[in-house]
Amino acid sequence: MTIRKKLVAGNWKMYKTLHEADAFAQELVEYRDMLSPSSVDALICAPFTALCGLGEKLKQVHVKLGAQHMHEAEQGAWTGEISAAMLQDLGCEYVILGHSERRQFFAESDEAVAKKTCVALDASMVPIVCVGESLSEREAGATQTVVSRQLGIVLEMLQLQKAKGALDGAFVIAYEPVWAIGSGKSSSAQDAQDVATLIRSLVTATLGQRAGEQVRIVYGGSVKPDNIQTYVQQPDIDGALIGGASLQVASFVALVEQVAALS
Ligand SMILES: O=C[C@H](O)COP(=O)(O)O
Q1: Is residue 1 part of a domain?
Q2: Distance CA 55, CA 43 (A)
Q3: Is 41 contained in some domain?
Q4: ipTM
Q5: Is residue 10 a part of any domain in this protein?
Q6: Is 99 tagged catalytic?
Q7: Maximum alpha-carbon separation in the chain
Protein backbone atom coordinates (compact mmCIF):
# COMPACT_ATOMS: atom_id res chain seq x y z
CA MET A 1 0.00 0.00 0.00
CA THR A 2 1.30 3.46 -0.89
CA ILE A 3 1.83 5.73 2.10
CA ARG A 4 1.36 9.33 1.09
CA LYS A 5 2.80 11.96 3.41
CA LYS A 6 0.07 14.26 4.68
CA LEU A 7 0.20 17.93 3.75
CA VAL A 8 -1.03 20.83 5.88
CA ALA A 9 -0.70 23.86 3.62
CA GLY A 10 -1.49 27.38 4.74
CA ASN A 11 -2.41 29.91 2.06
CA TRP A 12 -1.98 33.37 3.52
CA LYS A 13 -3.53 35.03 0.43
CA MET A 14 -3.02 38.84 0.60
CA TYR A 15 -2.46 38.92 4.34
CA LYS A 16 0.68 39.72 6.35
CA THR A 17 3.34 42.32 5.76
CA LEU A 18 7.00 41.32 5.90
CA HIS A 19 7.11 42.29 9.56
CA GLU A 20 4.00 40.22 10.37
CA ALA A 21 5.33 37.21 8.47
CA ASP A 22 8.63 37.41 10.37
CA ALA A 23 6.77 37.64 13.67
CA PHE A 24 4.75 34.53 12.74
CA ALA A 25 7.94 32.57 11.96
CA GLN A 26 9.54 33.78 15.18
CA GLU A 27 6.52 32.68 17.22
CA LEU A 28 6.64 29.24 15.61
CA VAL A 29 10.02 28.59 17.25
CA GLU A 30 8.18 27.85 20.47
CA TYR A 31 6.29 25.03 18.72
CA ARG A 32 9.26 23.68 16.80
CA ASP A 33 8.97 20.14 18.13
CA MET A 34 5.29 19.89 17.27
CA LEU A 35 5.95 20.91 13.69
CA SER A 36 8.21 18.06 12.72
CA PRO A 37 6.06 14.92 12.74
CA SER A 38 7.47 12.51 10.19
CA SER A 39 3.99 11.88 8.79
CA VAL A 40 3.16 15.51 7.90
CA ASP A 41 4.57 18.22 5.63
CA ALA A 42 3.73 21.65 7.06
CA LEU A 43 3.77 24.44 4.49
CA ILE A 44 3.11 28.17 4.34
CA CYS A 45 2.34 29.82 0.99
CA ALA A 46 3.13 33.46 1.70
CA PRO A 47 2.64 36.64 -0.35
CA PHE A 48 5.52 37.49 -2.72
CA THR A 49 6.67 40.39 -0.55
CA ALA A 50 7.18 38.12 2.46
CA LEU A 51 9.02 35.31 0.67
CA CYS A 52 12.53 36.72 0.84
CA GLY A 53 14.24 35.34 3.91
CA LEU A 54 11.12 33.60 5.20
CA GLY A 55 12.18 30.20 3.84
CA GLU A 56 15.27 30.11 6.07
CA LYS A 57 13.25 31.08 9.13
CA LEU A 58 10.55 28.51 8.43
CA LYS A 59 13.15 25.81 7.78
CA GLN A 60 14.33 26.18 11.36
CA VAL A 61 10.85 25.20 12.54
CA HIS A 62 10.41 22.42 9.94
CA VAL A 63 7.90 24.35 7.85
CA LYS A 64 8.27 24.54 4.07
CA LEU A 65 7.81 27.66 1.95
CA GLY A 66 5.52 28.09 -1.04
CA ALA A 67 4.15 30.82 -3.30
CA GLN A 68 0.54 31.44 -4.30
CA HIS A 69 0.91 32.05 -8.03
CA MET A 70 3.46 32.35 -10.84
CA HIS A 71 3.68 33.12 -14.55
CA GLU A 72 4.37 30.35 -17.04
CA ALA A 73 7.01 32.26 -19.05
CA GLU A 74 10.68 31.88 -18.24
CA GLN A 75 11.13 35.67 -18.36
CA GLY A 76 9.90 38.60 -20.41
CA ALA A 77 7.77 41.73 -20.54
CA TRP A 78 5.11 40.66 -18.05
CA THR A 79 4.70 43.61 -15.72
CA GLY A 80 3.88 42.60 -12.18
CA GLU A 81 4.46 38.90 -12.74
CA ILE A 82 6.93 36.45 -11.24
CA SER A 83 8.64 33.40 -12.76
CA ALA A 84 9.41 29.91 -11.50
CA ALA A 85 13.14 30.71 -11.34
CA MET A 86 12.44 33.78 -9.20
CA LEU A 87 10.39 31.71 -6.76
CA GLN A 88 13.10 29.07 -6.64
CA ASP A 89 15.65 31.78 -5.83
CA LEU A 90 13.57 32.66 -2.80
CA GLY A 91 13.50 29.08 -1.57
CA CYS A 92 9.97 28.12 -2.59
CA GLU A 93 9.43 24.37 -2.75
CA TYR A 94 5.74 24.58 -3.60
CA VAL A 95 3.52 26.88 -5.67
CA ILE A 96 -0.28 27.11 -5.67
CA LEU A 97 -1.66 27.23 -9.22
CA GLY A 98 -5.17 27.98 -10.45
CA HIS A 99 -6.64 28.97 -7.11
CA SER A 100 -10.30 29.85 -7.67
CA GLU A 101 -9.57 33.48 -6.73
CA ARG A 102 -7.04 33.60 -9.59
CA ARG A 103 -9.50 31.97 -11.97
CA GLN A 104 -12.40 34.19 -10.90
CA PHE A 105 -10.75 37.60 -10.49
CA PHE A 106 -7.74 37.33 -12.82
CA ALA A 107 -9.30 35.24 -15.59
CA GLU A 108 -6.77 32.44 -15.26
CA SER A 109 -7.71 29.73 -17.75
CA ASP A 110 -7.47 25.95 -17.52
CA GLU A 111 -4.82 26.07 -20.28
CA ALA A 112 -2.68 28.60 -18.40
CA VAL A 113 -2.91 26.49 -15.23
CA ALA A 114 -1.82 23.43 -17.23
CA LYS A 115 1.22 25.26 -18.66
CA LYS A 116 2.19 26.58 -15.25
CA THR A 117 1.98 23.09 -13.77
CA CYS A 118 4.51 21.78 -16.31
CA VAL A 119 6.79 24.78 -15.75
CA ALA A 120 6.69 24.38 -11.95
CA LEU A 121 7.59 20.69 -12.21
CA ASP A 122 10.44 21.49 -14.60
CA ALA A 123 11.71 23.94 -12.02
CA SER A 124 11.55 21.20 -9.36
CA MET A 125 8.77 22.89 -7.44
CA VAL A 126 5.71 20.97 -6.32
CA PRO A 127 2.59 22.47 -7.93
CA ILE A 128 -0.61 22.55 -5.89
CA VAL A 129 -3.22 22.60 -8.65
CA CYS A 130 -6.59 23.88 -7.43
CA VAL A 131 -9.90 22.70 -8.86
CA GLY A 132 -13.47 23.05 -7.69
CA GLU A 133 -16.98 24.02 -8.62
CA SER A 134 -18.92 27.22 -7.93
CA LEU A 135 -22.22 27.20 -6.02
CA SER A 136 -24.30 27.41 -9.20
CA GLU A 137 -22.32 24.57 -10.77
CA ARG A 138 -22.86 22.47 -7.68
CA GLU A 139 -26.58 23.24 -7.64
CA ALA A 140 -26.74 22.22 -11.30
CA GLY A 141 -25.16 18.87 -10.39
CA ALA A 142 -22.06 19.71 -12.45
CA THR A 143 -19.33 19.21 -9.81
CA GLN A 144 -17.77 16.16 -11.44
CA THR A 145 -17.99 17.68 -14.93
CA VAL A 146 -16.28 20.89 -13.83
CA VAL A 147 -13.50 19.14 -11.91
CA SER A 148 -12.91 16.71 -14.80
CA ARG A 149 -12.62 19.62 -17.25
CA GLN A 150 -10.28 21.67 -15.08
CA LEU A 151 -8.03 18.73 -14.37
CA GLY A 152 -8.29 17.07 -17.77
CA ILE A 153 -6.30 19.77 -19.52
CA VAL A 154 -3.60 19.71 -16.85
CA LEU A 155 -3.23 15.94 -17.00
CA GLU A 156 -3.16 15.82 -20.80
CA MET A 157 -0.41 18.42 -20.92
CA LEU A 158 1.60 16.62 -18.24
CA GLN A 159 1.30 13.42 -20.21
CA LEU A 160 2.22 15.04 -23.53
CA GLN A 161 5.23 16.80 -22.10
CA LYS A 162 6.21 13.84 -19.94
CA ALA A 163 6.76 16.52 -17.30
CA LYS A 164 9.36 15.66 -14.74
CA GLY A 165 7.82 14.21 -11.60
CA ALA A 166 4.31 13.96 -12.98
CA LEU A 167 4.47 10.24 -13.61
CA ASP A 168 5.67 9.74 -10.06
CA GLY A 169 2.77 11.79 -8.78
CA ALA A 170 5.10 14.49 -7.47
CA PHE A 171 2.35 17.05 -7.40
CA VAL A 172 -0.64 18.00 -5.31
CA ILE A 173 -4.24 18.55 -6.36
CA ALA A 174 -6.42 20.67 -4.11
CA TYR A 175 -10.16 20.17 -4.30
CA GLU A 176 -11.67 23.46 -3.17
CA PRO A 177 -15.38 23.96 -3.76
CA VAL A 178 -15.60 27.71 -4.40
CA TRP A 179 -18.72 28.11 -2.24
CA ALA A 180 -16.85 26.67 0.77
CA ILE A 181 -13.92 29.11 0.62
CA GLY A 182 -13.96 31.60 3.48
CA SER A 183 -17.68 31.05 3.93
CA GLY A 184 -17.74 28.83 7.00
CA LYS A 185 -19.73 26.33 4.91
CA SER A 186 -17.46 23.37 4.47
CA SER A 187 -18.18 20.42 2.22
CA SER A 188 -19.21 17.19 3.91
CA ALA A 189 -16.28 14.83 4.28
CA GLN A 190 -18.08 12.25 2.17
CA ASP A 191 -18.69 14.70 -0.69
CA ALA A 192 -15.03 15.74 -0.59
CA GLN A 193 -13.97 12.08 -0.59
CA ASP A 194 -16.21 11.39 -3.61
CA VAL A 195 -14.51 14.16 -5.59
CA ALA A 196 -11.07 13.01 -4.40
CA THR A 197 -11.87 9.51 -5.68
CA LEU A 198 -12.78 10.98 -9.05
CA ILE A 199 -9.55 13.01 -9.12
CA ARG A 200 -7.42 9.97 -8.30
CA SER A 201 -9.13 7.94 -11.00
CA LEU A 202 -8.53 10.72 -13.57
CA VAL A 203 -4.84 10.85 -12.66
CA THR A 204 -4.57 7.06 -12.90
CA ALA A 205 -6.37 6.97 -16.25
CA THR A 206 -4.11 9.60 -17.83
CA LEU A 207 -0.76 9.21 -16.10
CA GLY A 208 -0.86 5.62 -14.90
CA GLN A 209 -1.21 3.59 -11.73
CA ARG A 210 1.91 4.88 -10.01
CA ALA A 211 0.95 8.52 -10.50
CA GLY A 212 -2.57 7.82 -9.28
CA GLU A 213 -1.30 6.17 -6.13
CA GLN A 214 1.32 8.81 -5.38
CA VAL A 215 -0.49 12.07 -6.12
CA ARG A 216 -1.54 13.89 -2.97
CA ILE A 217 -5.09 15.21 -2.94
CA VAL A 218 -6.01 17.82 -0.36
CA TYR A 219 -9.29 19.46 0.55
CA GLY A 220 -9.75 23.22 0.99
CA GLY A 221 -12.69 25.34 2.08
CA SER A 222 -13.37 26.51 5.67
CA VAL A 223 -11.00 23.95 7.19
CA LYS A 224 -10.33 24.55 10.88
CA PRO A 225 -8.54 22.61 13.64
CA ASP A 226 -11.87 21.14 14.74
CA ASN A 227 -12.86 19.70 11.34
CA ILE A 228 -9.55 18.88 9.61
CA GLN A 229 -9.48 15.31 10.88
CA THR A 230 -12.83 14.46 9.30
CA TYR A 231 -11.33 15.22 5.87
CA VAL A 232 -7.91 13.70 6.37
CA GLN A 233 -9.47 10.48 7.68
CA GLN A 234 -10.93 9.91 4.21
CA PRO A 235 -8.96 7.36 2.21
CA ASP A 236 -8.27 9.64 -0.75
CA ILE A 237 -7.68 12.91 1.11
CA ASP A 238 -4.07 13.54 2.09
CA GLY A 239 -4.27 16.89 3.78
CA ALA A 240 -5.75 20.35 3.52
CA LEU A 241 -5.20 23.77 1.97
CA ILE A 242 -6.19 26.32 4.55
CA GLY A 243 -6.76 30.05 4.25
CA GLY A 244 -8.18 31.86 7.30
CA ALA A 245 -7.21 29.29 9.92
CA SER A 246 -3.55 29.36 8.83
CA LEU A 247 -3.10 33.01 9.75
CA GLN A 248 -2.73 32.58 13.51
CA VAL A 249 0.17 30.61 14.93
CA ALA A 250 -1.93 28.68 17.47
CA SER A 251 -4.42 27.64 14.85
CA PHE A 252 -1.76 26.65 12.29
CA VAL A 253 0.07 24.54 14.86
CA ALA A 254 -3.23 22.95 15.93
CA LEU A 255 -3.98 22.00 12.31
CA VAL A 256 -0.63 20.22 12.03
CA GLU A 257 -1.14 18.53 15.41
CA GLN A 258 -4.61 17.28 14.48
CA VAL A 259 -3.29 15.66 11.31
CA ALA A 260 -0.19 14.23 13.03
CA ALA A 261 -2.46 12.65 15.64
CA LEU A 262 -4.09 10.53 12.94
CA SER A 263 -0.97 8.58 12.10
O1 LIG B 1 -6.50 28.34 -0.29
C2 LIG B 1 -7.27 28.23 0.65
C3 LIG B 1 -8.69 28.24 0.43
O4 LIG B 1 -9.10 29.22 -0.43
C5 LIG B 1 -9.53 28.07 1.66
O6 LIG B 1 -9.69 29.27 2.37
P7 LIG B 1 -10.44 29.22 3.79
O8 LIG B 1 -9.75 28.17 4.60
O9 LIG B 1 -10.27 30.58 4.35
O10 LIG B 1 -11.86 28.83 3.50
Answers
A1: no
A2: 10
A3: yes
A4: 0.98
A5: yes
A6: yes
A7: 48
